[in-house]
Design brief:
Length: 423
């Protein structure tokens, strides 16, 4: 009898809570694109701070098994040998018994359990599903891909008709790294800094996607090109881009490009993303095995997720990481830290950005760089105001200008650059 009363009280609570929520939400239908087929009529719930998808629809999309325990308020999902436990009206889930915290709570709406749709884009979900999920707000389309498209070939990057000696900025792949030396010799002009700028993501890896459909890979490339132009024009530095077009590059190849051309500095340009739509700001990272905090670790996991697209066995990835993260890399950590701090200070001084953050994390793209190396997150595409700013040419040029000034000031301080004046 007591158990029955508890069940009735819990059901009443869920009904009242569900009714209250119903007045605050907007429901619409979205399209789901899978490898083999397309699903229509999938339900999306838009709340004040997050978009939600029902677990029933998640079950259909990923062909999972779901079981609902109404008395305890727990729902379990089984997929590919993994077990995920969702606790209704909390921000906690258990993935194979390991607790993880969400930015937005699991919801019960009209007797259906809903989860934040951005959970499906995270690195943990990618491991569970053995594929990549992306949500495009602008097109109301969720895409799940189990089999990534083939990598870019040498012929696509370097057609036989291309005159390599005339290319001012070039992208390369792991099977064509030797080509970079034909374009940029390892010997440098005396007292001229050589900087490699890496526009993060590209090709089949779009990176983060904003609510208006802004793709991170596109913003990264635009900012990188603008930064390269300023560093060349204002300070006379020699600048190389790891990619000048929308192509996919393996993460480890990016730092290797800088190594091959004997660069003095490696800068990887990115835009940030978060499950919370309120998180915003400018962040600078340098390499560390241990992340500064859980947020830094989450950023690194998201940026490292591109490894899943490289079709490299996990055991081989670990071997590569072990080789690349050596004492040789550690030599440059202090210099990277100093540059990151100076850059954050300059951004705070020159802009309205309050307290730009300097953090450490294990970014695969920075591993193996035999020079100071930093990763810059110029803003959060998931924060509406910053997405709007990053779509503005004026704002992007402003950010690139301040990045260039910071690099110049750092090398002036360390007597490693030729004399110049900040424009």
């Amino acid at each position: 009898m007591k158990k029955k009363n508890t069940y009735l009280l819990f059901s009443l609570f869920l009904f009242l809570f569900s009714t209250r929520l119903n007045a605050e939400i907007v429901e619409k239908k979205i399209k789901v694109v899978l490898d083999e087929k397309t699903l229509t009529g999938i339900k999306l719930i838009t709340g004040e701070e997050a978009d939600y998808i029902s677990l029933d629809d998640v079950k259909k999309i990923y062909d999972a098994k779901v079981h609902w325990y109404p008395v305890s308020g727990k729902v379990t999902l089984n997929l590919n040998g993994s077990k995920v436990e969702f606790l209704v009206e909390t921000k906690r889930i258990l993935v194979n018994g390991i607790q993880r915290k969400l930015d937005d709570p699991i919801k019960l709406i009209n007797d259906e359990v809903f989860i934040p749709i951005n959970l499906l884009e995270g690195p943990s979900w990618q491991k569970i599903t053995a594929g990549r999920t992306s949500w495009d707000w602008s097109k109301d389309t969720l895409t799940f891909t189990r089999k990534p498209p083939p990598s870019v070939t040498t012929e696509q990057l370097f057609p036989q008709t291309t005159d390599l000696s005339s290319i001012p900025a070039v992208g390369v792949s792991s099977i064509s790294l030797s080509k970079i030396e034909q374009v940029f010799p390892t010997e440098k002009k005396k007292n001229i800094l050589r900087i490699v700028i890496d526009p993060g993501h590209g090709g089949k890896d779009p990176g983060a996607i904003g609510r208006r459909g802004t793709k991170e890979k596109e913003i990264n490339l635009i900012v990188a090109k603008e930064l390269a132009n300023i560093l060349r024009g204002n300070y006379g530095y020699e600048v190389i881009l790891t990619r000048k077009d929308d192509i996919f590059l393996p993460l480890y190849d990016r730092a290797e490009i800088a190594n091959r051309v004997n660069a003095d500095l490696f800068v990887s340009i990115h835009c940030n993303a978060s499950r919370s739509r309120k998180l915003n700001g400018f962040e600078v990272y340098f390499l560390s095995e241990k992340a500064t905090d859980s947020e830094a670790e989450e950023v690194a996991l998201r940026e490292n997720a591109a490894l899943a697209l490289e079709e490299i066995p996990s055991w081989k990835q670990k071997e590569i990481e072990k080789i690349l993260y050596s004492m040789e890399t550690n030599v440059f950590l202090n210099q990277s830290s100093e540059l990151a701090g100076l850059l954050a200070q300059h951004i705070e001084k020159k802009t309205e950005i309050i307290n730009p953050r300097v953090r450490q994390a294990s970014f695969s793209v920075l591993r193996g760089a035999r020079m100071p190396a930093i990763l810059v997150e110029v803003g959060f595409l998931t924060y509406r105001n910053e997405e709007t700013k990053l779509r503005s040419q004026k704002y992007r040029k402003q950010i690139a200008k301040y990045l260039a000034e910071s690099i110049y000031q750092y090398y002036q301080k360390n007597n490693n650059s030729k004399k110049a004046s900040i424009q």
